Amino acid sequence: MEQLLIVEDDIGLNQGLCKALKADARQIISCQDLKAAKEQLLCGGVSLILLDINLPDGSGLELLREVKENMPGVPVILLTANDTDLDIVDGLE
Question: For the domain 3-92, what is the CATH code?
Answer without folding.
Answer: 3.40.50.2300
